[in-house]
Amino acid sequence: MNQTDGLYVEVVTCCLLVLGKLLITELREFRKNFESQLFAFVLGSTCIFSLADIGWIIFSKALFPDVILANYTINCIYYVASAFVGFTWFIYCQYNIGNQISQKKLMMFFSMIPFFVLIFLSISAPVTKLLFYIDSENIYHRGKLHFVQVICLNCYFIFTCIQAIIRLVSKKYFAQRKKYVSICLFILWAFIAQLIQIAIPGYPTIEIGLTIALLSVYLEIKNSKITLDSLTQMNNKRQLLNFLSYKFSQPYDPENKKVLFLLLIDIDFFSELNGDFGHLEGDSALVLVSKSLKSLSAGQPYFLSRFEGDKFVLVCEKEDEKDIDKLCMDIKNTVSRDSKLALKDYELSVSVDYTKRDCEEKTEADFIKQIKNFTYNKKRARRED
């Protein structure tokens, strides 16, 4: 084993340490969370894939340089593991996309064809030599059907990427867009790694690419589980999007007397407050407003969220816009009253705007766009004043 092989082993070992740490973390949640179970299978198969890659160097060049059977065995494990990487990733993505593939027998059948083709070519390689073969000098060579392995593996990646892109361009899946971006990035990293390894053989770019991709997916999983804003302890923007996604997944009923309203609460002159009294006092003002909103909403079926910066959102269902106008006034009065009671050196006031779901075509993306329009119009009005 030369210096290049030693460096190859070191790089893959570093990737294995990262993947192993992620796997251990996911295994702690294995029984609690089905998504963690699926992702643990992806991580586990990738670990075996990487172990087989460095095992090929250790076994064929260091421990058993003259044993052809050892070389065949480790390469079979490598290709079988690659089949599991592709298939487990496919199943994981179907769960996140919302496809109940286990209940769709025909889709399940076709999705397993590339997997079994890869398994067959891998296990039969010592006899058929179609996928790979080892010559009399114990040197590895690609077989005539090696390209089939590339096709079978990448068909899982390409299919899931297409599904994610379709959902990215659809307003219907607005709340899950970051999840679909992470799926697309996984494919991007995998393709780049494969192209580099084809162009420059002898470098562990596939393991590096897979490790970076899985790490980004893992971070997205963890971020998606964070639902509270750390300062105000209110629902955060992500949770708001999830809530709106749930609401808009229900059919629009024009006969329903109650209409979905979204209220944007914006602290007046917040940037000036930060400039005059400092960011700590600005944080204190955000907490004060959040407490006012919580007290006003106590016992009511309202959804409260901190949107971003000094903006808060309240989502509710009301029969009449007069009720919303009253609620807007109550919010302003409550914040003003609580500000005076807090004996601050300044008096807080808020602006409240609202939009409603008044047609079937309106989506959560339209609601969020309306919030941004509120903010833009308010800033423009201030500049004109």
**Secondary structure tally: strands:** 6
Count of runs of 4 or more consecutive helical residues = 12
In this structure, how is the largest beta sheet organized?
Answer: 4 strands, antiparallel
The pLDDT mean sits at: 84
Which percent range fits the helix content? 55-70%
Rg: 28 Å
Beta-strand residue percentage: 5-15%
Apparent shape: elongated
Termini separation comes to: 75 Å
Q: What would you call the structural class?
A: alpha+beta
Identify low-pLDDT runs. none
Order of helices and strands: HHHHEEHHHHEHHEEHEH
At a glance:
The protein has helices spanning 3-28, 34-63, 68-97, 105-128, 146-168, 177-199, 205-224, 237-249, 270-277, 279-297, 321-341, 364-384, and strands at 132-134, 140-142, 259-267, 303-308, 311-318, 350-356. It is an alpha+beta fold and 385 residues long. The protein has a four-stranded antiparallel sheet, with helices on both faces. A two-stranded antiparallel sheet has the order 1-2.
Write the layout of secondary structure elements.
Blueprint: H1 3-28, H2 34-63, H3 68-97, H4 105-128, E1 132-134, E2 140-142, H5 146-168, H6 177-199, H7 205-224, H8 237-249, E3 259-267, H9 270-277, H10 279-297, E4 303-308, E5 311-318, H11 321-341, E6 350-356, H12 364-384
Record keyword descriptors for this entry.
385 residues, 12 helices, alpha+beta, 9% strand, four-stranded antiparallel sheet
